[in-house]
User: Fold this.
Amino acid sequence: MAFKAKLVTAKEVLRPIEHLRRYSAPVSGAIPASKQKYIPTSGTYPKGFLATGIHVGVKPTNIHTPDLALLASEVPCSGAAVFTKNKFQAAPVVISRQVLQRCSGEGIRAIIINSGCANAVTGKQGLEDASSMAHAVDECFQNPSKSTPPPQQEPDSVPSSTLVMSTGVIGQRLPISKILSAIPTAHSSLSSSHTNWLLAARAICTTDTFPKLLSRTFTLPSSPGTTYSLAGMTKGAGMIHPNMATLLGMLFTDAPIPTKTLQPLLTHAVDRSFNAISVDGDTSTNDTLSFLANGAAGGNPISSLDSEDGKAITEIVTAFTQQLSQLVIRDGEGATKFVRVRVTNSQSFADAQKIASTIARSPLPRGGSTGENERELRADGWE
Assistant:
């Protein structure tokens, strides 16, 4: 019996490996060439907002990558947020919700975010750490010339005007002294430049392979001669499934939107964007998406979403959050396909959302899309 031997080259052996999807950015921190197209080279950012991202070393293994972001307004803002519906909510979620409740969404000045540690499942000490981060930022605005960090404070010692977010490893305590010592440095490096906005977007990343940042300008019917700006950043690559997931997001605008309008506006937009995406079907403990509006560009306050301006801003913000949330899918852990589920002729938005979510989580269409088989799914009967 004769056998034929085939010589296999090293290139042929390694070819399948070339198509493997990295689950996190390369150790060097370099952004994959295929993702460079998603990173803006310039931006149009809202008046009165400043940003920065600095290196703290929250994780001991991080020796140079920014991991503390600070975004702030030069004037007090209206603030709104939506949070995870996970029953186990991380300390930053609890504190940020309390901040908004205490001030009824008025007078918010900043958002402080660390990556590398989620400050989740950390008990009372975790709450104190999250509160101390917010207080430290408040102190920077109250005493801008002070370069030393304030002492760690009890969670309810003074009202706070700063929202706090954390993302990273669950079950570990923050290196809080290191973070508090770095906050004055972050405050002093705030800037409106595109470079600083991009640094902030980079600082909130964990397993993301690229920073996710968008900005745009717009006008409103009542003030056609006034140009407004809207900016947003987000992070997330794994544990992505409604309602949100291991996901943080921040929106900023210089349009005059009172809190009573801002909260329903954000909820409407998120239901049609960040709450309509899925990577792996898992949810998380830290999800937060906030929206700050400082009115620095002037114009008439948008007092109702039913007004002409209200309808216009609803359409603008919803489309913007959809674009921003899609960047999360583009960077999904293990994802090789971008699939959009479209539901038509549904009796209600809630019904359509439930149908689309069912399809997105099902192994059947997932397997079909992975195999690149073109199919039409009829969800009502799965015909």
About this structure: The CA atoms of residues 45 and 229 lie 6 Å apart. The mean pLDDT is 82. The two ends are 52 Å apart (CA to CA).
